[in-house]
Amino acid sequence: MKEISYFQLRAYLYPKEQNQYATFTLNELENVWFCTRKNVKRKIKQLEEEGRFNYSPGKGRGNPSGIHFYEHFQDEVERFVYQCVEKDQLDQIVKLFQLPIPKTWISNVSEQVQELFGFQSSNGNKDTLRTGIARKLSTLDPIYSSVTLENHLIDQLSDTLVKYDEDLDETVPHIAHHWHVDDDHREWTFYLRKGVRFHHHKTLTSEDVLHTFNRLMECNSPMSWMVQDIKSIKCPAPFKVVITLHHSNPFFIRYVSSVNLAILPSDTTFDESKWIGTGPFKLIEIDDQKIVLEAFDYYFLERPLLDRIEFWRVPMDAAKAMSFQIGEGSNREPDKYEEIEVGFRFLIFNFRTPPSPLVHDPLLREAIYHILDMNKMWKDLNREEKIKGKIATSFHPWRSNPIPKEPDKIDQLLQSSQYQGEELQLYSLNFPQAIEEAQWLIDGAKQYGIHFNLHTFSLDSLYQENVHQNADLSFMGEVASTDIYLSFLGAFYNKALKFRKLLSDKHLDFIDRKLEDFKHQTTTLAQVAIMENIEAYLRDHHLVIFQYHPLKKRAFDPMIRDIRFQSFGYVDFQKLWIP
Fold this sequence. Notes:
Number of domains: 4
Distance between the termini: 38 Å
CATH superfamily of the largest domain: Dipeptide-binding Protein, Domain 3
Shape: globular
CATH class of the largest domain: Alpha Beta
Strand order of the largest sheet: 17-21-16-20-18-19
Strand content: 15-25%
CATH topology of the largest domain: Dipeptide-binding Protein, domain 3
Low-confidence stretches: 322-330, 555-565
Structural class: alpha+beta
Mean pLDDT: 86
Number of strands: 22
Largest sheet: 6 strands, mixed
């Protein structure tokens, strides 16, 4: 803790440093260290006695104090990281990386830090996987979670009544070993496995299923669409559940497979810090620095081959450098996996509460469509090799067929539009790459006389009702689970996502009618035809401007076996093992 206190001081003063000397007031350090002035003076004295710096107290009221540091800050950072690697003190490195130190320094030591990530084996033959995550989690509550990483973690901790099998393209038994539906697809009866245990060793019964569904039905959740048509839920026996709908819905069985309906115990109040489910892993620890999962020995299916998974929060540059390795024991070149993400980045217009009514002008939207040329963006940002994604015209990469942009039309479109140089409010996620892309659009549009004011937002704010009410247009991304059909429905039904928040009632009425038809189709071909019809509607009216499908890259030690991917493109931790 003493080391981190020093680096907190050094990181705060670094922008002020000149020749390793900086001035400050004791009041400033009270805010840096969150302690009283008496403790500030005590910490300064201790650090000075350790030979970290020479301290010159300010003379007289209001005069700043000064510190002369004996070493360059970067040298101290790198030496501290090396020492922590040798002592296996990953928690200290994570705390350091959360301080405002230059990103290039993190890149310089990422190779050394990597030694603490990947697979680690203890003397007790416990297999541990350490990996990095680049941001604070939003929520692990299944009835609110709409973000891919969070949903993936919930999937490790819990189970649903049924599962969607991507290879078979059908729903298969899981907690429910069998189910029956009437001819009208309104009454669904589920028969539960016996002996399924929660992490606190309670046996799962129909009352837990009732509790789970009621919890979602009784709250104001973005995922309420999954249960809004439920008329009643009955538990005629401990291992039998009957769900009756108001209306016929053949697609309801896919709702039940969603991680948002992960079964929770009825005898405890849900607590994110004490997550209790039936999943292959159980939550051991969670805080702002790390999340620790351990294998659940009493899992009702096959026990995970890994014993422990640690997710450590590190800066984005460090997280990108992480690969799945086997400690220091393997010097082999890692196997590299590349795949186009089943998701896309897009720009959407706000037809609900735009600050400017100009976004309703189709000519202005079409002009912005031609300005947002992905080939030109990638070339200008030197991204040809870094991000060789695929240009998107659809939700899914295999149905995207790039359409050439026509920049020659832009001037005429703007002259015929109602736009007169007004400033439009542009929103973007606060990720470096997203901000860079937004700035590229701002610079490109300015050449045609279109002016944007950029605002950034975090993933946490997805759950805030008014976060985009002042946006004229916004960048965002959408990622599908392995069930791309359920994900397509969710993209438009989920109240936390942009489509439901920003499209007009007229647009949503058209889409909702199509989706209602979609749910009653009996063939994949018919469902895809409806999906394509909705995408064409978004495209042709420039309600959404499709950008690209990102390229995902991963590196694995060649000794790691059974590498498989689950929903949202994440690794199936339950299957990983090393010989």
